[in-house]
Amino acid sequence: MAKVITCGNFKGGTGKTTNSTMIAKTLSDRGLRTLLIDMDPQGNATNLFIKTKNYIDDEVTVFNTTMMAAIQSEDLTNAIITIKDNLDLLASSADFSLYPRFMERMTDYNERVQYFAQLLEPLKANYDYILVDIPPTISLITDSALYASDWCVIVMQTHERSLQGAEAFLRYIQSEVIDTFHAPTLDVLGILPVLLKNGAPVDVSTLEAANEIFGSDNIFQTTIRNMERLKRYDLTGITDEDMHDKKVREVYENVTDEFLARLEE
User: Fold this and answer.
1) CA-wise closest residue to 141 among 175, 190, 108, 92
2) CA angle 109–114–120, rounded 5-degree value
3) What is the pLDDT at residue 80?
4) Pfam families from the xrefs (predicted)?
5) Could you give the strand order of the β-sheet that contains 151-157, starting from the edge strand earlier in sequence?
6) DSSP string, 223-249
7) Residue 64: which pLDDT band, with cuts at 50, 70 and 90?
8) Residue ranges per structural domain of the chain
């Protein structure tokens, strides 16, 4: 059965989508069956992986069923797109913003929170890992993703607002998703730091503050450094062409090593 891991923070622009997609691809490159679920209605992870598929296959990819449509038909497999060997995508689009309204047919909010986990359960046998990308908001979408997850990685950019967002996200996981909604398996895998600017004093001070607040054992030892190639992937998809791509691969090999080690612990 797959392990389900959500990447989150209540501060936008911290690198949640970048890291969930890059870890998912690295897992798949190792032969591990991986599914990425894009639960952000903006669909950034979907766009990145569709462009990656186009880069690999050298053809335009069209999908006819969105995740929202699959939810309405009560069969998530209808929206799964194969990006490459061992890497699938549950694609999102703007219509997923209607998910909370659609779920108002259930009067009990706890039932709404649990519903997505029920739909996801049949897929778990098909994968080793399921990663979930979520929007940086308190909503039924976030609650549903976290409830369905075994673990959460809090992605924290080395910026004061991102640190505050990580603190708020951690408190919310405990007070709401675990204590109120009674998520059956959810725990925090760790805080993944993303440098705002390599070597800048604000990065150093924010990391020091994070170590004091969360404890050094809860901070990933691998730090994501500022790499321009990661920004380029939003335009091109994930490429494999030159030394810049190689540097990105090496970083995410290290991140994925620690990711798997933490899961094994």
Assistant:
1) 92
2) 150
3) 94
4) AAA_31
5) 80-84, 87-90, 34-38, 129-133, 3-8, 151-157, 187-194
6) -B---HHHHHHHHH-S---SHHHHHHH
7) confident
8) 3-259
CATH architecture of the domain covering 3-259: 3-Layer(aba) Sandwich (3.40)
Q: Provide the residue count of the chain.
A: 265
Q: How far apart are CA 259 and CA 246, in angstroms?
A: 20
For β-strands 87-90 and 80-84, DSSP reports them as antiparallel
Query: What are the tens digits of pLDDT across the range 147-185?
Result: 999 999 999 998 889 999 999 999 999 999 999 999 999
Which whole number is the average pLDDT over 235-243? 94
Q: Are residues 55 and 238 in contact, defined by beta-carbon separation less than 8 angstroms?
A: yes
- Give the confidence band of 202 by pLDDT, cuts at 50, 70, 90: confident
Predicted TM-score (pTM) of this structure: 0.95
